[in-house]
Amino acid sequence: MSKLIAVTGATGFIGSVLTKELTEHGHRVVAISRAKSLLADTESVLWRSVADYGDVDALQSALAGADIVIHLADNPSREVYTQGSTASGGIINAVLAAMASCKITRLIVASSVYARAHEAGNETAYGFHKHQIEQLALNHDDVRAVCVQFPPIYGPGCKGGLATLEKLVRTGLPIPLGRATTPRSYISVANAAQALGALAAATPDAFSKVSGRALSVTDGKQFSTRDVIEMIAETIGTRPKLVSVPTGLLRLLGKAARKAELVTGALDALPAPHDPAWLDDLGWAPTATMPETLSYMA
Description:
Elements: E1 4-8, H1 13-24, E2 28-33, E3 45-49, H2 56-63, E4 68-71, H3 89-102, E5 106-112, H4 113-119, H5 125-138, E6 144-150, E7 153-154, H6 161-171, E8 184-185, E9 187-188, H7 189-200, H8 204-210, E10 213-216, E11 222-223, H9 225-236, H10 247-256, H11 260-267, H12 276-280
Parallel strand pairs: 1-2, 1-4, 2-3, 4-5, 5-6, 6-10, 7-9
Antiparallel strand pairs: 8-11
């Protein structure tokens, strides 16, 4: 059944792919963005500009009539977050208040596996920020929320760790990550958008079964940073110059250069318990994984 689905952050990395995914499956989208200049409305996409996601009145106007909200909007720079800050709640609280005013009861929040890591004691400012958002959404009295915890998302236009690795491989310079062999989880932006779309399209009963929970979804396989570098190199038609530098030395150098988080992201495990059962119930599974999903780099 076709739905009117509101998407915050619709012009972003995930949002632009998700909007296309939803319309291709027959849904109409209220595409919400901070951008002042937006595309013209079409039969399937209604564009709405919200200058400040903390503005409840503006959000209420944008969300009016929607069946469900997918909340993607966030600041992609982890450097803006401060451990213990309460600023994280501003946007999600405004979204929740606007939804309550519009009597919209279903919410999907794009979160991160770093929120799960925070719960496990591996505390980072970014993980705290995501965990706080999850708790506010999941514990709201008038909204049934599902938080989808994604591992690092990659694809055309991404600015994360895989984009950095691609740049390193393309330079042809030695890469000191030959010992970065710990498995890590990833998800392509196409798989992420499809998973969100399947959840948004769920029947009320199917949605109720997963509401109130934080769930993980990945490409279905784990790869080490060394594996990823080798697959990127193969995709672009070159050979990586991997150098086996002791990981302890890399951590010291990263700390000295104020790049400790970047080094940690390459070396440490990042498990995301891929639980396909809830997605199987919705009729979805990852369609591809690396190296196929790296073809955009070719």
